[in-house]
Amino acid sequence: MSATAILDVYAIVLAADLIWGLFLTRLNYRSVASFEAAVPEDFVGSVSQDEHRKACAYSKARMRFGSLEGPLMSALTLAAVATGLFGWIDSALGPIVGGEYLRGLVFLAATGLLFGLVSLPFSLYSTFVLEKRFGFNTTTMGTWLADLAKGAALSAAIGAPLVLLLFVFMDAAGALWWLWAACAFALVNVALSILFPTFIAPLFNKFRPMEEGSLAAKIRELALKTSFRVGGVFVMDGSKRSKHSNAYFTGFGRARRIVLFDTLVAQMSEEEVLAVLAHEIGHWKKRHVLKASAVSIAFSFVTFWVLSLLKDWGALYAGFGFASPSKEALLLVLGLASGPFTFFLTPLFSLWSRKREYEADRWAAEQVGSAAMGSSLLKLSRENASNLTPHPLYSAWYYSHPAPRERLAALKGRTSGTTGA
Fold first, then answer.
1. CA triple 146-148-153, angle to 5 deg
2. What is the pLDDT of residues 367-389, one digit of tens each?
3. Helix ranges (DSSP H) in 228-269
4. What is the C-alpha separation between 199 and 191, in angstroms, rounded?
5. CB 400 within 8 A of CB 350
6. Where would I find the H helices in 196-326?
7. Are the C-beta atoms of 73 and 81 separated by less than 8 Å?
8. pLDDT (tens digit per residue) in 235-267
9. 8 Å CB contact between 164 and 101
């Protein structure tokens, strides 16, 4: 395949990914608009008309924003590839930066900075205009800039050694370098999962153990009842940045912990917080975190294998504007092409994720009752202004969690199935 053909294929796949996404967004936008006039029947009495209108307006605003950001970013990326911008940067660094490995690092840092600068206006608008308009943003410009600086420093501190390690494997580990690299990176992935709760997450947020009281007592009772051993249940200062609420499970072994946003604790009753906590424990009981990590590691092996197949394909580098093959060019091409060329896998991963959410919901309902679980889901949807009426095709393709209506219906189905009502 010639370099021109490779560029043409990339442009076609990139356009197909973009057009399909815009088509789904259009379907979803029309679905939201069609239900905007009245609260959907399933939510009457639980969601007010004003809350529903806000959720619809919020969903539509986010879709309009995404429909502008996506095409613009895709067009700029394709333009950079077609004009040979990335290849020019790589060649220009040759006389300036000595050493193959250092030049590769500087190139990847430069292209990362370029993408970051292009996406910066979108990030600013999303945080300080769109989120603020709907009353969610609570972050300050100082906090936002600090997050940006910390993220960049963390990426450099972790990413640079890993890139150098990969370069060494590519040069010194023979034909099976990809296998050794995949094994090493799998170990790094596990290590980062262990280190994240204790050393990385606290760089951005403050975490405090759940305060003593009736809720803490109920949490201990639930942990004892479910034989759940965890490094702790922590409350995170999510309100420092947003009024959105959430909870998550993180870490392995003694480092694993459950994190509740302080906004969630403030918005919910103790029974509802307990239900959310039970849902997170359900993920652990069903080994969802372990399975997700295993799948992630498996895909990393496939990724390194694909890199080994593409490594010496000269036309590929020329198609993306590079004058000659290089390790850094190969990594950039992978980054540019992996999304568009695997977009068809999105609904499969979404389906698998939703299946795990249903399982965790069912498990939690068995521990704390369907009423508390349903009430917590309703409140999460209401407080986060979730889209109550997504188009089925859109949610099937993109949603990692079931749509609120489907999630609540599954809980009711379980109730009717167990009580005979």
1. 95
2. 999 999 999 999 999 999 999 99
3. 262-267
4. 11
5. yes
6. 214-225, 262-267, 270-285, 288-310, 314-319
7. no
8. 999 999 999 988 888 877 666 788 999 999 999
9. yes
